[in-house]
Amino acid sequence: MKKIIAGVDIGNSSTEVAVAQLEEGYVKFLSQHLVKTTGIKGTTDNVKGICTALKEAAKKASISLNDIELIRLNDAVPVIGDLAMDLISETIITESSMIGHNPDTPGGAGMGIGITVLIDKLSTLEEKEQEYIVVIPKEFDYEWAAYQINKTEQNGITITGAIVQKDDGVLIHNRLTKKIPIVDEVSLIDKVPLNKLAAIEVALPGYVIRTLSNPYGLSTVFELDPDQTKQIALVAKALVGNRSAVVILTPQGELVERKIEAGRVILQGANKQELEVSINDGAESIMGIYEKLGTLQDVKGETGTNVGGMFNGLRHDLAQLTGQPAQEIMISDFLAVDAVIPTTISGAIAGELSMESGVALASMVKTDKVPIQKVASLLEEKIGINVEIGGIEADMAIRGALTTPGTRKPIVILDMGGGSTDAALMNEAGKITSIHLAGAGDMVTMLINSELALENKELAEKIKKNPLGKVLSLFHMQLEDGTILFSNTPFPPHTFGKVLIREENELTPLPNILSMEKVRDIRRSAKRRVFVTNSLRALKRVIPTGNLKHLSFVVMLGGSALDFEIPQMITEELGKYGIVAGFANIRGTEGPRNAVATGLILSSVRKEVAQ
């Protein structure tokens, strides 16, 4: 008797479906489809995406949705990533305001020190011994502004620099009789303190500022004592690498100091064993303490600290999604990696950030089967088809992986998705040992977004998935490996001189402040910190001896196995242990995709035959 069933794999990033026809123990796969996961994995928001994927898969198979008699879901466990900052939640400046952004075209070059004054107040200045820096809001025309500065200079008043709201730096500079450094594109110019001592510095094209990015340079300019120099050091740090900057001395006490410590992580093991480690000790120390603990029961953060707030927020969010009390939600695994976190500086008036050391944490939450059972019940109610929850993801993945040509038992798989990295070992007798660890593609995206200070997860995701290039002329582009790509058609004008993300059918320019080398280094570093670290961690846990040298073959699965760099990184690392590693080709047609959905169908067949 023929029977059509569907396997549904709910992932953190995507939901995959496979549809197959069963007849007397034989399986004929009819279609598959993939959609973006709706909501957080393992919650009722997933139903919308599942329905879309099922309808599309049914259409591809030339059947009606109602022809499907059984749907098997993976046992989806929510995984959430978050960042815990090191040392501080906001960088504290008590002695200065600052502007340190990099406008594309600042005017002039050099250094200027003086008292800040509005452009329309220049005519009232009388003190010829004093030097001034003029502030020019957007309502003032560049020609009129240049005329006023020239006229003031003719009257014997010294103007040493200008701060401009519009993109008029070069236009004003070209009209000045005495050239001065000009920083333009300062959007929040109304926040620039007036009648305060300020220093402005603009470097020549291709160079960076030297004095204002040096704490001792700032100390010299503003005649600071050692304690004040220590306070202003974070300003200098935030300005390193800029072509232009302004620092303005403000009265002490104008900004209030407030610090929140990063805090300690409290790991709870079996028999009420507890170990503590400070976030400030870094990821290596945190994971070292984790290894000493053995079996993890739960993780908590020190109350009143950054990491405490992070874990409490994670539990609160999941409590709302799953309907479980927050105190009953346990963290079953986490991955800590060192990160660089952009931190807003109090006193900054052009959005400056200080790049602070930090630790990124991806956490996996242990829940009962209630959340995924709710998904199954709601799906069954919505489409009127029987729904059941299949086995553990890694177990299903290994069954799917065995459909790859050239594989056999014993086999070890690495399933690398958006939120988790799973490993499973099936021995010759068919016994499966599996592990489910936090940290995968979403964490890499989070690190890229943070360390490049993008504040744009969509752009960070594109950077993660695609190589880079830089357009050098109408018809040629330099690729990130140094080779030159020639084009038969001219590149679009908006790409000239830009670092680009090279998608299949699109070129996405990146902000000018990002060099190709920096973006590539951070992208590759983030992938190594997450995937190479987690792959070794997962494989060691599924091998009975814990020794990687006892492994021979590893098959990579999941969306991240399609990445243009990650499989090579893991293959290179595992090669040190004499392990042959490569990505799967599920059913000989699907590449590393669809393993879990395929496994859910195959495990159902074996179950029916056994009955």
Could you please say which CATH topology of the largest domain applies here?
Glucose Oxidase, domain 1
Q: What count of helical segments does DSSP give?
A: 14
Ends apart, CA distance between termini: 15 Å
Q: What fraction of the residues are assigned to beta strands by DSSP?
A: 25-35%
Radius of gyration computed on alpha carbons? 30 Å
Structural class: alpha+beta
**Strand element count:** 28
CATH classification class of the largest domain: Alpha Beta
**Poorly predicted runs:** 85-95, 253-258
Q: Which architecture of the largest domain per CATH?
A: 3-Layer(bba) Sandwich
Number of domains: 4
Shape by Cα distribution: elongated
Largest sheet: 7 strands, mixed
User: CATH superfamily of the largest domain, please?
Assistant: Swiveling domain of dehydratase reactivase alpha subunit
Mean pLDDT: 86
Give, in spatial order, the strands making up the sheet with the most strands: 6-12-11-7-8-9-10
Helical content stands at 25-40%
